[in-house]
Amino acid sequence: MKIKYNEETDSLVVNFCEKEIDDSEEIRPGVIADFAGDGTLVSIEVLRASKKIESLDEITYNFGKAS
Predict the structure, then answer these.
(1) Would you say 44 and 14 are in contact if contact means Cβ atoms under 8 Å apart?
(2) Mean pLDDT lowest for which of 22-31, 41-50, 52-61?
(3) In the Cβ-directed half-sphere of 41, how many Cα atoms lie within 13 Å?
(4) Pair 13, 30: CB distance under 8 Å
(5) DSSP string, the chain
């Protein structure tokens, strides 16, 4: 997984895999989900991220199995 914030465009992209994007859907205003041809979620992009996400400079993530 890769998480990247672009300050210049004020967009946050979370890539879950390296598959080719076949389809995109705006699931909320300014939130775009990208899907591969087999339905796999490839990435999520948040436009105007600084207006939608608090503390962009403090993004953390944890990996572990859900119980």
Answers:
(1) yes
(2) 52-61
(3) 12
(4) no
(5) -EEEEETTTTEEEEE---PPP-EEEEEETTEEEEE-TTS-EEEEEEETHHHHSS-GGG---------
Strand partners, 3: 14
Which residue bears the tokens 């859900």? 66
Q: Determine how β-strand 11-15 pairs with β-strand 2-6.
A: antiparallel
Residues 6+ apart with CB under 8 A from 47: 10, 11, 30, 31, 32
Cα(10)–Cα(17) distance, rounded to whole angstroms? Answer: 22
- Residue type at position 59: I
Query: Model's pTM, two decimal places?
Result: 0.80
How many angstroms separate the most distant Cα atoms in the chain?
A: 39
